[in-house]
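Hi U.,

Before I forget, here's the chain from the pilot set. I'm dumping it here mostly so it's searchable later in email.
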Amino acid sequence: SVAPFLKKHCAGCHNPKVAEGDLDFQDLDIDMKASSSAGRWAMVIEKLATREMPPEGRARPGDDEVKWVIGWIQGEMKRAGKNFSRRQAIANGNKVAHDKLFDGKASFPFNNPTRIRTLSPEIYTGFSTDLAKGLSLGQPFTPEGRSTFKDMGAPKIDEPVTVQLMRNALLIVERQTAHKMEGGKMLPAPGAIKDMLAYIDESVPLTAALMDKAIVTQFQKVLARPPTDEEKARFTKLMEKNVKDAGRATGMRYALSAVYLLPEAVFRYEIGTAKVDEQGRVRLAPREIAYALAYALTDKRPDSRLLQDAIEGKLGTQEGVATAAKRLLEDPKLEKPRIMRFFREYFGYDKAKEIFQDANPEHDPRVLVEDTDKLIEYILAGDRNVLKELLTTNKAFVAYKTAADTRKKRAEAIQKFEEQKRKDPAKFANKMPPKIGRSIYLAYNLDDFPDQQPVELPKDQRAGILTQPSWLAANAKTDENHAIFRGKWVRERLLGGVVPDVPITVDAQLPEAPDKTLRERMNVTKQEYCWKCHQLMNPVGLPFEMYDYFGRYRDKEPLVDLKAAKPAKKGKGLEKVLHGVPVDASGAITLAHDEQIEGDVKNAVVMLHKLAQSERVEQVFIRHAFRYWMGRNENLGDGPSLQQAQKAYRDQGGSMKALIVSLLSSDSFLYRTPVVEKK
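Structure:
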């Protein structure tokens, strides 16, 4: 099965005569134990999985064929003990020409195809728990995980997802109709809906009127609309058949659960009306806009007011949509978790919880992440020069939720320690009092928890989210810094660059040399082959060497325990001890496409203040906000929407609210280009 596929779709370009990409399938060993061979096969997997190959214009294999070939390669790799993995990013949005996107004179065709997306995991959870409070359901949906933001792409619904959806639907209806019998009467159990018991109660005649009521009520609960005449007739037949085949309770439950499986309950529709304007676009239907606005800010379906706006035609203009978006943003009672989720996913600091730091057992990343959340909320509350504040503020919250309790626990522990010491001085002579919570305030270079928060840290030591302990720990290893990770983030998220994936055949490891600084160990990346990519990361990553791997500011390199270090090779001793060597945090902003900020920098604080002044950095931030709230990468046709968003942000003094409102009322949010089937 595999050989004919390769012959038909690959061998034409990858043979001894052509060998495009230096790949010749006749010379490619099927023995995956050969490291070079396994690496090349991993490359084949990536090209097939991303559908880069076969190229456009050639015969395209079906999904099942591709899946079979990838499965065979992965199976052979597993048998050979090879485990190659590469980041498979959805088409990198940074590859779109930045200058053209923000060129007010340029004009490109609008290109935003209609689409249907599944609900995000958070939306599905909010939707299902609203309908069956207190019920724990399995999560059918998972994000693709191949992009900066999780809620992008359009994952397909396969058999496992369908099975989970069906199981959940039935569990919800069973909860809604749960009951107990007392004196021959059916009484609602906790979580049940009293009015729904009549649908399964055999003592109540199952009349046409009762079935009609059941269908209408369920549609309103699940879809927030009445059923059409066709839907009502279809579900009536389903109820009658189910009850006949399985009995009253089971039949009605299965029929009612089917409403949860309708496409409208599982997907987000972005199809638009049938009317095509002079630019070949269709506008989203009012109901689609209502759902899109709700899902852009919350994990809930639109409220009654938003649905009423759709019915009354108030979402028919850009101004009307902007008014609705402002109303949602300014409603203090409405939870808007997707705003904070944007910053968590953009900065990625919550990944600190995934980094285990065995050298620092008191390390509590959960608290550090909460602190950064609070700092972002504080900046958003001011809503002035938001990006600049995010990149330069020297304010911080330090265990703001638990500082008081931790102080109390520590005082109690110290008191207990002193009492034990008085009773048995010899036993406690060489012991120190407990250091509860110490690692948290030390991460900020403080002597204790601050009395008032936020606290101002030294301006020459801290500048924004990228100097928060949470972000620094998230972009580090378990016991050392990782300037390459940090530099890659700056290059892609602030400068809008593209860092190529590590070549599959390259073992991207720095040499183990405890007697050398990280900067010295990174000299191997200056080899010509490596420097093509590392020149994008190293200069903007090394300035973060002024912090250690869990966020403490430092001006000297750490002590190296030579006894614990691995033995040096014969003839080469570990003469150099790093303790006391000044930290070199110098770097440079290079290849930034902004002459005003390019040049050498003393350290990360200086670098971040320069980056915060850059219009390009501001525009790249807006591009990332666009991707998050549109759920897709931008293209050249989105230029006007991006330019309007930047103008709104600037005109309102760096307001995040103004930026979001502009995006949610833009043409890119409201219009789609119909997909025309080729004959």
